[in-house]
């Protein structure tokens, strides 16, 4: 395929090549005063995050996963200066002890940076609850 197609529309190469770059942003937690770096996530990472909230077999939401959904999302986004995640799944539970103001601020900043809003997660919850036989 060519570099450009003459009509101002993106080519396949441009789409595939430009959409794979991570974006980063630095924010400061309002209460703790700590400065952290957040990264964008891929569509695959976001789909896996959503899938983890819903149990297999269409049996509804995993309650424990839903309760820590914000913390799991924060863990996906927090990185060090080189772009390596600084939190893993085993750290998610410890984030439950953060001050809610800092946690909420950081979740909102991560979601905004990734182009995700709270309605996306709430929609997933609502749709999952409507599945016949949902727990």
Keywords:
135 residues; mainly alpha; three-stranded antiparallel beta sheet; 6 helices
Task: Explain what the structure shows.
This protein is mainly α. It has a domain at 42-129. Helices cover 44% and strands 9% of the residues. The chain has six helices and three strands, in the order H-E-E-H-H-H-E-H-H. A three-stranded antiparallel sheet has the order 1-2-3. Strand 1 and strand 2 form a beta hairpin. Helix 4 (69-77) crosses helix 5 (100-114). The longest helix has 15 residues, at 100-114. Residues 130-135 have low confidence and may be disordered.
Number of helical stretches of at least 4 residues: 6
Q: If you compute it from the alpha carbons, what radius of gyration comes out, rounded to the nearest whole angstrom?
A: 18 Å
What's the count of strands?
3
Proportion of β residues? Answer: 5-15%
Helicity level: 40-55%
Q: Note the main sheet.
A: 3 strands, antiparallel
- Strand line-up of the largest beta sheet: 1-2-3
Average pLDDT, rounded to a whole number, is: 82
Name the shape in a single word: globular
Q: How are helices and strands ordered from N to C?
A: HEEHHHEHH
Overall structural class, as computed from helix and strand content, comes to mainly alpha
Terminal-residue CA separation? 50 Å
Unreliable stretches: 130-135
């Amino acid at each position: 395929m060519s570099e450009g197609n003459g009509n101002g529309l993106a080519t396949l190469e441009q789409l595939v090549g430009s959409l794979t770059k991570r974006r980063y942003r630095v924010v400061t937690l309002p209460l703790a005063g700590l400065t952290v770096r957040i990264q964008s996530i891929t569509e695959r990472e976001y789909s896996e995050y959503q899938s983890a909230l819903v149990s297999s077999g269409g049996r509804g939401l995993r309650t424990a996963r839903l309760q820590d959904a914000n913390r799991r999302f924060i863990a996906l986004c927090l990185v060090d200066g080189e772009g390596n995640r600084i939190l893993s799944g085993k750290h998610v539970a410890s984030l439950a002890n953060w001050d809610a103001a800092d946690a909420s601020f950081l979740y909102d900043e991560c979601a905004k940076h990734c182009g995700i809003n709270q309605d996306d997660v709430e929609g997933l919850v609502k749709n999952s609850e409507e599945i016949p036989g949902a727990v």
